Amino acid sequence: MEQALFEQIYESVVRREPKYDGVYYTAVLTTHIVCRPSCRARTPKAGNVVFYDSLEQAVAAGFRPCKRCRPEEGGVLRPDALLASETDKLMEAQFGQKVTLQSLAAQLKVSPFHLQRTYKRVTGRSPAERLDQLRVEKACALLADTELAVAEVGQAVSFRGPSHFAAWFIRKTGLAPTEYRSQIQGGIHHE
Ligand SMILES: [Zn+2]
Fold it and tell me: Is 35 a catalytic residue?
């Protein structure tokens, strides 16, 4: 599971929010119990948690369903949360291309209006905001961990022209891509 998604689901565990109930299942390594993310029991440490996207898998891996939160009963937001998680998967796969609310909605066979409203209700932000954040994360990782030229990093996160990419990157992070890279690499030299 991708780290950002893990953190997003784990945040709902910490806050005991039901948005991922019925979509992901919290398996706790220390107790061998599997819960719905909103379970009211004591919050497990992130390091002791594995998320499964089906209860069957968790049970097959040796986890017992929690008697308190009854993960087998699904969740109130299940259809909405499923749509949001499908949207996340699409954006994760397509952040390097041009993506619009319309193109996402068409792939998910819902109206753009419904997608916008539902996604925001489940995750607290719009698909466009999430896509932007995803591209920032990917661009930062590429600048930090690869030798790719700035223009290539821009292309990898859907920007055709390097100046357009640089302007967007500055707006999001306060730093030019080259500054970001040299700060990160400078940090490594000091260690
Ligand atoms: Zn539970």
Answer: yes
**Sequence-distant (≥ 6) Cβ neighbours of residue 21 within 8 angstroms:** 36, 37, 38, 71, 74, 75, 76, 77, 78, 81
Determine the distance separating the centroid of ligand 1 and the alpha carbon of 20, expressed in angstroms: 13
Tell me if residue 140 is catalytic.
Answer: no
What does the pLDDT average to over 102-121?
Answer: 94
Question: Measured in angstroms, how far is the CA atom of residue 64 from the centroid of ligand 1?
Answer: 10
Query: Is pLDDT of 155 > 90?
Result: yes
Grade residue 76 by pLDDT with cuts at 50, 70 and 90.
Answer: low
List, in order of start, the domains of the chain with CATH numbers.
Answer: 3-73 (3.40.10.10), 78-130 (1.10.10), 131-190 (1.10.10.60)
